[in-house]
## 1
Amino acid sequence: MNNYGKKWKERIRKGETVIGGHVFLPNPAMAEAMAFYGYEYIWLDGEHGSFDKETIHSHLTAINNAGAGAFVRVTAGEPWLIKPVVEMGPDGIVFPQISTVEEARKALEACIYPPEGKRGYGPRRASRYGKMSDREYIDSVDESLVKIIQIEHVDGVNNLEKILDLKGIDGIVVGPYDLTASLNLLGQVTHPDVYACFEKIIAACKARSVPCGVSTGYYGDEYIRFWLDRKINFIFCGDDIAFIKAGTESTLAKLKNFIPKDASAR
């Protein structure tokens, strides 16, 4: 198995911008296909998608076998939710809705072994089902597992500098849509007040040399250019459902152009 988490960190250190996409549907074939199509990293959305533990495991295997890294956004930053996921060996794990130092610390500690953290020992796929020795796994896991804090509420923006003081954060990812909701601007991702929050997050991360990225839909060229012009380190953009929707609507529209609207003309 390739160490995609380690590769992620190495590429970001080199100044590259890493590209990823999202998966919501439970069949791992969709995630596998997106990896074959060229996505370098796939974000499994355990927060909003219909994934159980077995489904997550199947996705991780399919994505890695297709040559891409697999990140899992857990339902919440609770240790009991994080534990079984990290034992499956994802390349990265994303903690949603982090707004305080305490929330961030609890989530990070669930991924880090004592004395720095509180993770219990029991890797399965993560240690190649025991192919790696305990010592080898313990010594390598901090470098191979990408731990990302998601900021998607104005409280998280305001507390970000304190959150960034914590050790073990490998990246900050912005959640634009929920952030707009916390500002009473639901869905207005290009509103000046929302952009001001984006700028504040990016500046804080750059000041602390913490990688920063965004998880987003494609809300227009100017919106995407906003992020890339600020030299963010990674971007997750696009998802399986959106691709099916776009392809279906486009194909049906083209087909209907060939079908006479007047039944008598058939």
## 2
Amino acid sequence: MMLKSLFKKQNKIESLVYDYLEALALGQESFLNALNACFLSGTTCEDFDFFIGQTHKYESKADDIREEINNMMYGKVLIPDARGDIMELLTCIDEIPRLYEHILYMIHDQQIMLPEFLLADVKDLLRISVECCDLLIQQTTALFQKKEGIRSFVNKIDINESHCDHAERRIIGRVFTSDMDPFDKLQIKELIQLMGDISDQADSCSRLINIISMKRRV
């Protein structure tokens, strides 16, 4: 009976991890919707506040799920090493929705608007950054389903992260060679660096997943 109970709890933890990843994906969708509501499309921004609220809602939901996972695991469901690995991974991933919120609140509170000449490059940076996160969600799922190919996700995310680094430097270079107001230059530089942090964080989480996967095979 004790082994059966532990098995059920382990299944429950796995189910909660999938719920966490779903909240992450939904928050990411709201993040992109918020940006497209006015920051990238230049419309009236009527939906911007709504999508910021949605992004915050899913970030809070992910936090609640992570806390529930933590409480279950430390109720002697998993061995200490496995508990530590899972919580370290979720803590790492959790920085991504926090970046989404930080970026949106910065745009909202500081009333930032991108000049037209940066739009294409910023869209490219965001597209590849979000693709990194999509790959990370797939890789995390593969880890919990004990599938092969964990390393291939690391390689794909690393390539995308390098692309984002180049895009970030290119955008910042264009900002500082423009005739924009000096304060606006610094403001947009900070924003672009935050956007660049998304792929950096996804890359760090992906490498951590690879380490966890290798430890399982030892």
